[in-house]
Protein 1
Amino acid sequence: MKGEKRMSKFSDQLKNWLWGMKKNKKAVITVVIVVVVIGVAVAGYLVFRSDEQVTISNTAAVDSTKQVHRVIDGVMVPISRANFYPVAIQIENLITVRPQAGLASANLVYEALAEGGITRFLAIFASGDQIDKIGPVRSARPYFLDWTAEYEAVYAHCGGSPQALIDINTYNVLSINQIGGDHGYYWRDDTRLAPHNLYSSSELLARALRDKEADEEGDYDSWLFKEEEALSSRPTEAKTITIDFSTYSYEVEYVYDRQQNVYLRSQAGEAHLDEISEKQIAPKNIVVQYVETRLADESRLSMATIGEGEALVFFDGKAQEATWKKDDRQDRTKFYDLNDKEIRFNAGTTWIEVVPTDRTVEYN
């Protein structure tokens, strides 16, 4: 209404001005042209100004209610929680430190050999959930850094192999290194023996992200996701996956739970529990990624994480042969069926079991 009154007053003034100039035809023509230009500009401003206000208002309303696939694992969440900046945490798996804390809350977990036949985990967290205890946190290895690079994640660790520490500097990895001086983001659990008692939490890691000026959102390729199979379509016969990394202490077994459509994880013949929830770890998807593995020195391993190779993929109680491809260090490893079509996973947690090419994986 205020705009209409201003335009009416402007119109009356213009009429008086034109009447006084009616004997000067050239001046009248000039004025008319100026008036038309001004009128179009004012009208356009009012129209687009109104549209802009509506658009901003509508966007805000959509942001608060719209559900989208979370980038890291495909779970449906409010758009404001879809892409938190990821943190990759190196977690120990010695038999004496089990159960670990926080593993069941990870969105994605890699398991790979370290040295001496032991395995170690790289847990990726990007959900924004509150997790009071995560660990034990241990040292870095170069191939775990290659997987961290896929997400441009902050890397939480406690020291590392000589090559891993060189790579952290060479590639400017955003590192939270307890030994390197980042003490404030960890604590020691006095009920366990050092050095196997270093822990962090989602709150402390969020503080580290802030202090290190990390971006608010992640910047990495998402996998493809699908609707999981209906209960009636899931297999009724028993399904198991057995991975023999080295000794019995590091033998992994997954048993398919048809009702929940998850894979119940065990280690050394015992259910793999989470210290916090006291529940058995149960991912939606299992990937076995075969990788060329060799000794990098007298004790430490090297893995060919860049390139391509064979894989096995499990979800919905079904197994399928597959391949993996990773062209560059920062590229996301993608998995493809035998027709070279990218695999669509079930929304939810995925565990990637990185297995040397000479190991045997049994499944049915």
Protein 2
Amino acid sequence: MYRKLEAFVSNSFSEDAPPLKKAVAVFLLVVIVFVILEIATRMLCNPIKEMPNMPNAYYIYQMKPNLSQSNVALGSISEGFVSTNQDGFRVTGITVKKPQGALRVLCMGDSVTFGLNVNDDQTYPCYLQKRLSSDYSGREIQVINTGCPGYTIIQGMEMLTRKGLCYEPDIIIAGFSHHEFQPASKTDLQRISSPETVKWARSLLYRSAFYLMLRRVITPSSEYVGTPRDVEGAEDNAVMRVPVDDYRRTLQAFVDLAAGKKITLIFLSLPNPDLYMREQEDEHHAALNDIVEKNRCHSIDLHMELYLYKKDYQNTLMKDLIHLNRCGNKVVADIIADYMKEERIIICNAREHN
């Protein structure tokens, strides 16, 4: 085998070898070397096994598909037990194809929706599933958690159009605002605005352990660990990850898409007891309020609802200034379920479905 390969190389690179034969030989050698390096990387230091999330060519990054482990490290935070399905969504036992007669609720957002600091069965989408199944015991209701730490509404829209809609949701609950105003070298919209052929090529490379290892060595800041640190730029030249105009347009795109698909849309204003951070989010919240008022959308202000529930909710329902604890997730699920019951959202969807 070695002699045959040696003879092939010698003949291909001889002076009288045709240019096409030389090009084919170079290509084959590159492929062989890449395959050897790929196998070696997977055996010795496979970064795919180490990462709870991975780059995504279409929406920057995602949770790793088919994850099932405890103490998942997301940045400086160690999670409880985290499991994901084939699309990287924190849900198990739900197929992409919707069962006949089922009603589906798609929960979208960042780490608040994902459920940072809690186990799979302690996220608000999981508690919402239990509550809705109890309230409407005659119907099969499936709640799907598509939240991902660090996500902005730009990533959410891309994920929805490429993956989320495949689950045929009847109701979408969307909560984005914590990461939109953060500094970055490029906006999220600029980062995802590559030609489809380039995205396709990247999606192939992102499956390679050798490429990801090389990427980590050359540009360590490109690692995605559930926070936007990879997109942070020099403060002097920084832009918002999602400028207010991009945020407003994407909110309207959510509304238009939901209307076109006859999906009920509920926007969430995320809980945020930190006054300084709320001030930074003010312009984005104002844009959300404008879109809600203009389109007469469903909307729940979780900060206000939690404040009314308990004025010191920061000390009792939250793990930190952003993330809910187990009790906080359950309270949020009840707030959403109560709103859906008051607005007869499940009943109206059931009538349309039938």
